[in-house]
Amino acid sequence: VLQISKDDVTALQCKVVCLIQNGNFKEALGVINTHTKVLTSDVIAFEKAYCEYRLNRIENALKTIQSASQQTDKLKELYGQVLYRLERYDDCLAAYRDLIRNSQDEYEEERKTNLSAVVAAQSTWEKVMPDDLGLREATYELCYNSACALIGQGKLNEAMKKLRKAEELCRQSLSEDSDVTEEDIEAELAIIHGQMAYIMQLQGRTEDALQLYNQIIKLKPTDVGLLAVIANNIITINKDQNVFDSKKKVKLTNAEGVEHKLSKKQLQAIEFNKALLAMYTNQADQCRKLSASLQSQSPEHLLPVLIQAAQLCREKQHAKAVGLLQDFADQHPANAAEIKLTMAQLKIAQGSVTKACMILRSIEELQHKPGMVSALVTMYSHEEDIDSAIEVFTQAIQWYQQFQARTNYGCCIFQPKSPVHLSLIREAANFKLKHGRKKEAISDLEELWKQNPKDVHTLAQLISAYSLVDPEKAKVLSKHLPSSDTMSLKVDVDALENSHGATYVRKKAGKLTGDNQQKEQGQGDVKKKKKKKKGKLPKNYDPKVTPDPERWLPMRERSYYRGRKKGKKKDQVGKGTQGSTTAGSSELDASRTASSPPTSPRPGSAAAVSATSNVIPPRHQKPAGAPATKKKQQQKKKKGAKGGW
Question: Deepest in the core among 25, 282, 374, 597, taking most CB within 10 A?
Answer without folding.
Answer: 25
